[in-house]
Amino acid sequence: MKTFTVLFIPDNRSVQVDEGVTIAEAAAKADVFINNLCGGEGVCGQCKVQVTKGRVEPEERAGAFFSEEELDEGFVLACQTEIHDDLEVVIPPESRLEDAQIMTEEARALPQDPKVTPLVRKIFLELSPPTAEDNISDIERISRELRKKLGWHSYDISLHCLQHLSTDLRDNDWKITASVAKDRNGYRILKIEAGDTSHRNYGLAVDVGTTTVVAQLVDLTSREVLGVEGTHNRQARFGEDVISRMIYACGKGGLNPLHEAVVENINGLVEALARNADIDPKQIHVLVAAGNTTMSHFLLGLTPCSIRLDPYVPTADVYPQVPAREIGLLMDPEGIVETLPSVASYVGGDIVAGVLACGMADRDEVSGLIDIGTNGEIAIGNNEWLVCCSASAGPAFEGGGTRCGMRATRGAIEKIEFVEGQLRYETIGNAAPRGICGSGLIDCIYELVSHGIIGADGKFRTDLEDDRLCFEDDIPCYVIARAQETETGEPVVITASDIDNLIKSKGAVFAAIKSLVDYIGLGFDQIETFYVAGGFGSYLNIPKAIAIGLIPDIPQDRIQFIGNSSLTGARLCLLSEEAFEKAVYISRSMTNIELSHYQPFMDEYVAALFLPHTNRRLFPSVTY
């Protein structure tokens, strides 16, 4: 089979591939990122690239995404274009990912500090040598001493550890350190080391998000966080959202590439954290991961296909403890990996971690937790009961599904306002505009409706004299950044269909919150605190989010940002056996309301397709 070389610009990375693979597949092999919303189905148009050297044949659907001029200039869809020649491929700014905003802050609303009983403990043992009167086996001698220190009556041990135990004890004068982990049935000896190494005990808390993967390195002895690192989820090359990735995993691509991508993410973070802390990665003995149900399945290599199909059943909701070597993690091979349990197909361990982190399951008063992304996940409850749900908000809040939408990376417009009648915007990194991210889109909708440019139904008032209001094929749109201001030389606009998609997204989130509150028979005024979690939530302008009907109209002092609560919950579990058991209890205590089968949700959704809502009494503070 012929092979060809592909050079990617501006990364300046080249790769050799077999004839017939796509440009997107070549980019993945070269570790070059290209936007991909649909998972390679050729229907989103986000993987736009320009072939500047070499011969390619544009796929027949390319005409739907490119003008004749662009086709003549060599623009193609990377996911649909096969390679039959040596190529030079330029990835334009709108298809790249640069300087992503990654939420590494942990939750600021924490329960009381956990007891210092980490999931893996290192116990220094000074054993008495065997005698004629005390000639029990070596493993029983260790177990006897551990019983004195930990209280548990028996200890399992891996075959690998047992095979060298006799030599290890005698060569080291019966002074050893045992790494002991708690599992579902008791305690297990993971490793025996010579001498006293009890002070070298590290763990990793990981938030496995759909968009980003973030890890904290923790000293399990001092409980000090030694470092935090984040990176873009490498699975994005197979689709921007979990549905696209499940379709890829359950179809042409298979599960393994998705599993390998997230393992590569974590291994890269492990290497960076260990290097910065000047430790050996093999001194990391435990990892606790929190992610949505699909991400947890990908991490452990579980088939996710039934998650997206009615009746929406995951392979597992409580996950086994596994050795790190089984999934290829660069830490102690005999170290353990714990994945926080899920509740349902679309309410995962990240929400369980968030409930644990904000402490709402420990207090009498009723609180709510909201995590807004592709799905709007909501939990409400207290120390006696918990209910939750998930509504599909679509990709709009993460920059997908809109004409100039993009993720929160360099050049994304993140803030918009009118000042003395003039539109002003701010971009991430103060760079030239490339598009609009979720927070900017919410600002934009608010500013347009509050200044009468669109009506409460989201429709443009086409009779206005405004030089930013224009028409493309008789469809109205509004120019946010003019062509001469942008990096791409094309204007950044919001179209009528964009606004319609955003209203549907915000309507789904608010309808989910309202449905859940009504289901439990409460009013918004009876919920003491609404915690807003996740990266998107942290950049929200709360008054504007209320004014467009995204979140309830409640006093702002009852809304509290808690940052990356998924990461915080994972860290709490890493440090505390009791916290991990609490997380399992929370997951089993939460009642999930499947909104697709809950008729009141559809009624609430229709009512929410207005700015801010068809029932203005729900938003008394909104005056536009």
Summary tags:
Ubiquitin-like (UB roll); 16 helices; 624 residues; 27 strands; Nucleotidyltransferase, domain 5; 5 domains; 24% strand; 6-stranded mixed β-sheet; alpha/beta
Unreliable segments (pLDDT under 50, ≥5 consecutive)? Answer: 107-112
Number of domains: 5
Percent of sequence in beta strands: 15-25%
Question: CATH superfamily of the largest domain, called what?
Answer: ATPase, nucleotide binding domain
Report on the structure:
This protein is of the alpha/beta class and 624 residues long. It folds into five domains: 3-95, Roll (Ubiquitin-like (UB roll)); 120-194, Ubiquitin-like (UB roll) (Roll), CATH 3.10.20.880; 202-339, Nucleotidyltransferase, domain 5 (2-Layer Sandwich); 360-393 and 503-618, Nucleotidyltransferase, domain 5; 396-496, no CATH class. It contains 16 helices and 27 strands. The strands form six sheets. The protein has a six-stranded mixed sheet with strand order 12-11-10-13-15-14, with helices on both faces. Helix 14 packs across helix 15 (577-589). The protein is globular, with a radius of gyration of 27 Å. Residues 107-112 have low confidence and may be disordered.
